[in-house]
Amino acid sequence: MLPIPLQKTFTYTVTEAEATFLKKGMRVAVPFGKSKIYTALVFAIHQTPPDLYEAKDIHQILDEHPIVNEQQLKHWEWIAGYYMCSLGDVFRAALPSAFLLESETVIYKNEVFIADVELSDEAFLIVEALQYHSQLTIHQVSDILDKKKVLPIIDELLQKNAVYIKEEIYETYKPKLVKYIRLSAKYSSEESLQVLLDELTRSKKQREAILHYFQLAGNKKPIKVKDLEDRAAVSSAVIKALVDKEIFEFYYVQTDRVSFGGTTNNIKALNEHQEQAYNEIKTSFEKYEVTLLHGVTGSGKTEIYVKLIKEVLATGKQVLFLLPEIALTTQIITRLQNYFGNQISVFHSKYSMNERVEVWNNVIENKPKAQIILGARSSLFLPFSNLGMIVVDEEHESSYKQYDPAPRYNARDAAVVLAYQHKAKLLLGSATPSIESYYNAMQQKYGFVALQRRFGNIQLPKIELIDIKEKYRKKEMKGHFSDRLLQMITEALNEKEQVILFQNRRGYSPVVECTTCGTSPQCPNCDVSLTYHKFRKELKCHYCHYQRAMPHSCGACGSSTLDTKGFGTEQIELELKELFPEHSIGRMDLDTTRGKYGYQKIIGAFEAQEIDILVGTQMLSKGLDFENVSLVGILNADSMLNFPDFRAHERAYQLMVQVSGRAGRSKKQGNVVIQTYNPYHQILQQVSANQYTEMYKEQLQDRWQFHYPPYYRIIRITLKHKDYTRVDTGIHWLAKALQNSFGEHVMGPTEPSVSRIRNQYIKNLTLKIPPKQSLGKTKEQIQKIKNAFESIKDFRAIRFIVDVDAY
Predict the structure, then answer these.
(1) Does residue 20 contact residue 121 with C-beta atoms inside 8 Å?
(2) Same structural domain, 140 and 219
(3) Which of 6, 234, 300, 568 is in Cβ range 3.0-4.6 Å of 238 for a Cys bridge?
């Protein structure tokens, strides 16, 4: 199996000895094409030579043991089949990139590498060569060593942390060596120490450092250099001087990059409602593989998960805990650490490549520290050997769906299959379940448990709708805030409580417009206007990251009167700073949470009550738990409701209820203010009365009438190319071919609301599959049409994307 998007596997020849050593799931380096070398995965060992090509030899074997197990491969095959992509796509998505060496890989010297580690002669030659060159490609390495099989040597260097490879260059990640300090052996006697202190009477700082060293040494623990610098309040230069004088010496200890300490505490006792829900889930699992837990925000779903996890761990099985957002993991880790100490491993994309490899290895070896895996959707691909339970928290979240690149899977649905393959149980939890899951539960496909009371019997927040059309008319708006919202913010701040304000747009304002001619600056690569970011005084495209300085005059007519339309989180933050100068305002969006610990810093500061008002985008809506928040404001509900998508109303309902759920979680009832131009909209009324079932029934009726899921399945086909006429011709050819097979169930061709991204024009076709029609046969037919499409010379260069369940 090669990590390339071709729909088949490839056969290579091996010697008899290699064939007996190789096992399914090991990595081998293989030549492909004229000059490329890929890391491939052994899928099957057989004795049938291929008909159409001469099988090449493999270069070498990279593993001693399989790094992918049988059950994983079965799951990958299901994903490839169901989501209509190649096994190679799944393979590339599943493995951390450190496992996938390729011939174009570039190698860099690791600056913190300690030279006295034992290396083979060939590896030493490469380290030598890297002294003189800043980087080497794999081809250059093979020239230096004058041999073709160089990947094992590079693998050795990677394992010993002597080099790092191209994919990591953006992460500036060092291998985790902690620097410790100890006193040189010649100062072990008391006399020699006295002499030393007398010698240092003049160097006050150095003397300080030594005295503080002894204070720390009293604990009988190894002393980190960093701790000594902090304790003695000296700079690293002082310590370095003492090392140069051979008084101190450094030594390094390699530690696991990510390990969670913490002792295992007893689990909190559940209240009667939680206990009842817990027992219902247990009963439901006897009959159903999958159970949906519909618990209102703040009802204490996590405590129920914890109790279930504890039971599964007691049977010696692994647990996978899926979360939609990296932002959430920070809070949940802390909570689970209290209960399970160091049995937790975390896996998501903010972790460096090496950290992900470590987690992968710990899971495959079933180590004690990898009994609970907490992660975003990609943790589904880890090599579990005995999974006992999967928990999908906030199962309605659209972040569980992968849109680009392939495989375009939905982690919640793939988890159902994974649980089935491992004979494990799956628990879906949400305060606002997706319509598909709720429908499955109502149809008795899934078990269903409801938890309708908040923990501690605190009431759900009081929701107030404010008609801003009326407020603007009466001139009662101050910036983007109605007088009522400002009054409530002031009251909350006076009570020393915190406030969350939600606006689902980052930046300062989404459109900059010339007041004379009405032109607004557009992105040169995409079909969108540029968003203005005031902090950096620049215009940015949120699709392709194009940016340029904010112009002083209109590019079309030269007029200097430029006006901003609409508002984002940055503008709200600045307005709040003017309105509440004594209070600290924080902002949480994609711009402020870059970097590995971006989320932790902001969430930590808010929990510690260093921030009074937090402004943010949808990151705020996901299951975060802040004790002191009494007010949540949604500044503009209409942008969510008027979105061109069949799930817009469902999504708007979920988002608003989730954001509202952050208010009043611990002491008293919270307040929610929703500003809108249309307070009589049925969704807003349902949010304010917390009527999930009414919303569900109404949406279900619409879905049946207009042929959408959960009744009909949807497959979207997208074509992309930089030449508009080619895409246009291609999509019309495709529409005819699909209409010949599927008739009126083909919708389109249409252009998405942003019809050009990164200079690629985009056109869509949507295929609706009626309840009685076979999904497998439909996919076979689409595959035939796709093959025919790609055999036409003009269409070959067009990107053909199939997205199954595209919502």
Answers:
(1) no
(2) no
(3) 234
* DSSP labels, 37-55: EEEEE---------SSSPP
Asked if residues 616 and 573 have their Cβ atoms less than 8 Å apart, the reply is: no
Q: Is the dihedral of CA 780, 784, 785, 786 positive or negative?
A: positive
Phi, psi for residue 589 in degrees, rounded to 5:
-150, -175
Verify that 554 and 577 share a domain, yes or no: no
738-796 tens-digit pLDDT: 999 998 999 989 998 889 999 999 999 999 999 999 999 999 999 999 999 999 988 98
> Position of tokens 């209290």?
338
Residues 6+ apart with CB under 8 A from 234: 205, 208, 209, 228
Q: Identify whether 1 is part of a domain.
A: no
482 with 515, same domain: the answer is no
Which one of 456, 473, 494 terminates a domain? 456
Residue 336 and residue 480 in one domain: no
Residue 162 and residue 113: Cα distance in Å, rounded? 5
**Following DSSP, what letter does each residue of 705-772 receive, concatenated?**
HTT-TTTSEEEEEEEEES-HHHHHHHHHHHHHHHHHHHGGGEEEEE--SS-EETTEEEEEEEEEE-TT
Same domain, 695 and 795: no
**Tell me, what DSSP letter sits at residue 30?**
E
Could you report the per-residue pLDDT of 383-420, keeping only the tens digit for each?
Answer: 998 899 999 999 998 889 998 888 999 999 999 999 99
SS3 sequence, 742-753? HHHHEEEEECCC
Quickly count: other Cβ atoms within 10 Å of residue 386's Cβ.
13
Q: Tell me which residue of 417, 182, 101, 473 sits closest to 290, measured CA to CA.
A: 417
pLDDT digits (tens, 9 = 90+) for 610-639: 899 999 888 777 667 788 888 999 988 888
* Cβ atoms of residues 614 and 498 within 8 Å: yes
Distance CA 61, CA 41 (A): 10
**Six token digits for residue 354:** 């090496």
Domains of the chain: total: 7
Q: Are β-strands 36-41 and 27-32 bridged in parallel, bridged antiparallel, or unpaired?
A: antiparallel
Rounded CA-CA distance 149/152 in Å is 7
CATH of residue 764's domain is 3.30.70.600
Query: Which backbone phi and psi does 358 adopt, to 5 degrees?
Result: -60, -45
The 10 Å CB-count burial string (b at 16+, else e) for 7-31 is eeebebebeeeeeeebeebbbbbbb
What angle do the packed helices 70-82 and 87-94 form, to 10 degrees?
120
Q: What is the mean pLDDT of the chain?
A: 86
Same domain, 402 and 311: yes
Residues in the chain: 807
Q: Is residue 2 part of a domain?
A: no
Residue of 799, 800, 761 whose CA lies nearest to 526: 761
Q: Do 549 and 605 reside in the same domain of the chain?
A: no
Bridging pattern class, strands 613-616 and 387-393: unpaired
CA torsion through residues 308, 309, 315, 319, sign: positive
By residue range, what is the domain housing residue 92?
A: 16-99
Q: Is the peptide bond before 461 cis (omega within 30 degrees of 0)?
A: no
- The residue among 526, 545, 566 that closes a domain is 566
Question: What are the tokens at 565?
Answer: 């339309």
Residues 199 and 247 in one domain: yes
CATH number at residue 35: 3.40.1440.60
pLDDT band at 172 (very low <50, low <70, confident <90, very high): very low
